[in-house]
Design a protein that fits this description.
Peptide Deformylase, 3 helices, alpha+beta, 172 residues, three-stranded antiparallel β-sheet
Length: 172
């Protein structure tokens, strides 16, 4: 396994659609292993192949429930109900944004053994799946964010809200 360089917003490759994987071979398995190592080192919860410079349709995700490696993932169902949540991205360091996504999704993909898997997800798992599949289609979260802010602006907002809540508690 090897660490790969994570591409950063502005890299033209991040805006391109990835090609389907027709054969799961040693190169693809090594890529998935490298992506997992890179994601963990960067302290992320997901990583798509384009983020490490490879235009192939595969992602790795670990939201605390164990590592999953998906090949050719496709969202086949999504709820009409949506929610707007905060997202960040290893390819867009120092920024966060509010992104609207369906509340629930169903994804079909192949695992690293070539077996078809179906995943029904919500919460952080759903958000990570949507986010990484967007990368495979050349979309990064600032392209679809309703509001974008720097990490510093976000931390200042949290601090201000925390102070306001403390003042309200002091009044009680």
């Amino acid at each position: 396994m090897a660490l790969r360089t994570i591409r950063i917003q502005g890299d033209d490759l991040l805006g391109k659609r990835s090609r389907e994987i027709s054969e799961i071979n040693e190169r693809i398995l090594t890529l998935l292993d490298d992506m997992a190592e890179t994601m963990y080192k960067a302290e992320g919860v997901g990583l798509a192949a384009p983020q490490v410079g490879v235009l192939r349709r595969c992602v790795v995700i670990d939201v605390g429930e164990g590592l999953i490696k998906l090949i050719n993932p496709v969202i086949v169902e999504s709820s009409e109900e949506t929610e707007t949540r905060l997202e960040g991205c290893l390819s867009v360091p120092d920024y966060v944004g509010w992104v609207k996504r369906p509340c629930k999704i169903k994804v079909e993909a192949l695992n690293e053994k070539g077996e078809k898997v179906t995943i029904e997800a919500e919460g952080l798992y759903k958000k990570a799946l949507c986010h990484e599949i967007d990368h495979l289609d050349g979309v990064i979260f600032p392209d679809i964010a309703e509001k974008l802010m720097t990490q510093e602006e976000y931390e200042e907002l949290l601090e201000k809200n925390s102070q306001n809540n403390q003042e309200e508690d002091d009044e009680d």
